[in-house]
Design goal:
The complex is a heterodimer of chains A (286) and B (235).
Chain A: H1 2-32, H2 39-57, H3 60-83, H4 90-112, E1 117-118, E2 128-131, E3 134-137, H5 138-160, H6 162-172, H7 174-179, H8 184-210, E4 212-213, H9 217-232, H10 237-257, H11 262-276
Antiparallel strand pairs in A: 1-4, 2-3
Chain B: E1 3-14, E2 17-28, E3 32-36, H1 43-51, E4 58-63, E5 66-67, H2 73-78, E6 81-84, H3 96-103, H4 109-121, H5 123-127, H6 138-150, E7 156-160, H7 168-181, E8 186-190, H8 194-200, E9 203-208, E10 211-217, H9 218-223, H10 225-232
Parallel strand pairs in B: 3-8, 3-9, 6-7, 7-8
Antiparallel strand pairs in B: 1-2, 1-4, 4-5, 9-10
Classes of the chains: A mainly alpha (286), B alpha/beta (235).
Chain lengths: 286, 235
């Protein structure tokens, strides 16, 4: 029972990290029709900048906020300089964002050196506590709480504000949104920035969770995020959290029981969803 | 009477296809101008070109004496032009309420007044207020699409084939609503249903092979069997 509970908690925490990364990706793809392979790079920059800021200032909160701001700024620059010229051309998007991913990873090495950095949780999030005989690790619970908080906050904005309505409408029919007098390109920019900020948040939270961060971490997690986007349905925000939890849990349980099949299980999960629901679990069938 | 919209020798390509090859027309304020022509003649592309969705490559488009052919779509819409596309453009997963809220430029008293007016005109929209747009019937979707274009204080409405695929009784309802709207808004209507077009229209233009080939008061077309047979394939 203890093992089962811990694997579940571990899977949920991993799922939340993947959700934070995938949610931005799914909105960017759904609304902007942009395949952003550099998303993992923004995630890694969030991890490095946040960990460095935490180490420098001693404040975990400053580390988190700094990572998010880094993500927002890098997102803005990426959208304006890299993505804007290639809107509507998937081949160019793949090439240029893959290139950017490599550049971002290499730049991490230039700034912080080629070795991996260690990352620790602040004291108040270290250790564990016991509930009904089950040991709960504080930091995992913290990640789950942050993930859920972000989910509900974004969900609130999407459901209850004009900008949220515009984003949801834009995912379905960009042309019509423009014909209603809305400058969709400004909305694109905002969504790209928020998506990048969420990726950076995911990155900085991952540090203390895994103990170390390294420049190639972006690509590793980006693959999981893409799997989540496909399973959840491209453009579906609620789909991304459900799919991320599925992927997190499957990874956690498979890594314990059948470690060799951990990644293959996610691929299998994606293949099964695609066979029965090609648009993903929550995908909108255009 | 004031000319509100003017197209002068407008040409448009879609990909490599030269769809509009010289569209010239004038729309008078307060009138319903109907664009007629066979399938593929360029009627829908004309509306899309006015909206900037398929930008023109030659010619000028003037709205209220201001050239708009180089403007992006959202700016054209902000000038006061509402668009009801052929496929209705409903946001399927948004409710009726949300579809209208996305369109509303503000929540001023006049917008609320227009919203009330439109809900009285289309009571079905009030009835299915919280229902996703994708679950509405074809007629209800058409009503929602028209309502969305009308809810703002637009000076001109471009309506593309509102009767397409609808049952005759629904067509009648849509037609009545457009007749009511024409008191307050100028309308450019693309319509294949000649009965509807001739009932609503004040003025007509016939488009053939991407060019405007005939125009005049609707009465002229109603009486000219030969013109109808030649360009529209109807007697």
């Amino acid at each position: 029972m203890d093992v089962f509970f811990n694997l579940t908690l571990n899977g949920l925490a991993t799922g939340m990290l993947i959700f934070l990364l995938a949610a931005g990706l799914t909105l960017i793809f759904g609304l902007m029709d942009v395949l952003n392979f550099a998303h993992g790079g923004l995630f890694a920059w969030g991890a490095y900048s946040g960990t460095w800021l935490y180490a420098t200032t001693g404040s975990f909160i400053i580390g988190i906020l700094g990572a998010v701001v880094t993500g927002l700024i890098l997102g803005l620059i990426t959208e304006r300089v890299i993505i804007k010229p290639v809107y509507g051309n998937h081949v160019q998007q793949i090439l240029i964002t893959l290139g950017l991913m490599l550049v971002l990873s290499e730049l991490l090495k230039v700034v912080w050196g080629p070795n991996q950095l260690s990352a620790t949780a602040p004291d108040f999030l270290k250790g564990s506590f016991e509930v009904g005989g089950v040991i709960i690790i504080k930091y995992r619970l913290f990640i789950i709480a942050v993930g859920l908080l972000v989910f509900f906050a974004v969900q609130y904005v999407l459901k209850n504000t004009k900008i949220g309505l515009v984003v949801r409408a834009g995912v379905m029919n960009k042309e019509m949104v423009q014909a209603l007098g809305i400058n969709i390109k400004k909305v694109f920019m905002l969504v790209f920035m928020v998506g990048s900020g969420m990726a950076a948040l995911s990155g900085v939270l991952l540090g203390p969770y895994s103990g170390v961060i390294h420049a190639e971490m972006g690509m590793e997690f980006a693959i999981l995020a893409f799997i989540v986007v496909v399973i959840g349905g491209m453009g579906s925000f609620p789909g991304s959290i459900l799919a991320a939890i599925l992927v997190g849990l499957s990874g956690s349980f498979m890594a314990y029981y059948v470690p060799d099949l951990a990644l293959a299980a996610n691929m299998l999960l994606m293949a099964i969803v695609l066979i029965f629901r090609p648009q993903g679990l929550f995908g909108w069938k255009g | 009477m004031t000319i509100q919209l003017k197209l002068n020798e407008v040409e448009t390509y879609i990909g490599q296809f030269h769809i509009l090859q010289g569209i010239s027309l004038e729309v008078r304020k307060g009138e319903v101008t109907v664009l007629l022509g066979r399938n593929g003649a360029g009627k829908t592309t004309t509306l899309r070109t006015i909206m900037g969705l398929n930008p023109s490559t030659k010619g000028t488009i003037t709205f209220n004496n201001e050239e708009i052919q180089s403007l992006p779509t959202y700016s054209v819409a902000q000038k006061g032009i509402g668009y009801v596309p052929e496929d209705q453009g409903i946001f399927s997963e948004l409710t009726v309420e949300e579809n209208l809220k996305v369109a509303m430029k503000n929540e001023s008293d006049s917008t609320k007044e227009r919203l009330n007016y439109i809900l009285n005109l289309f009571p079905d929209l009030k009835k299915f207020w919280k229902k996703p747009g994708g679950l509405l019937s074809g007629g209800q979707k058409q009503m929602l699409s028209i309502a969305r274009a009308y809810v703002n204080d637009n000076e001109l409405l471009l309506i593309d084939e509102p009767s397409k695929g609808l049952a005759p009784i629904v067509v009648e309802k849509v037609m009545e609503s457009i007749i009511e709207m024409k008191d307050t808004t100028t309308i450019v209507l693309v319509e294949q249903n000649f009965m509807m077009a001739s009932t609503i229209g004040d003025h007509f233009y016939i488009i053939d092979d991407g060019q405007t080939v005939q125009n005049g008061p609707m009465e002229v077309l109603k009486e000219d069997d030969e013109m109808r047979r030649k360009y529209l394939g109807i007697a």
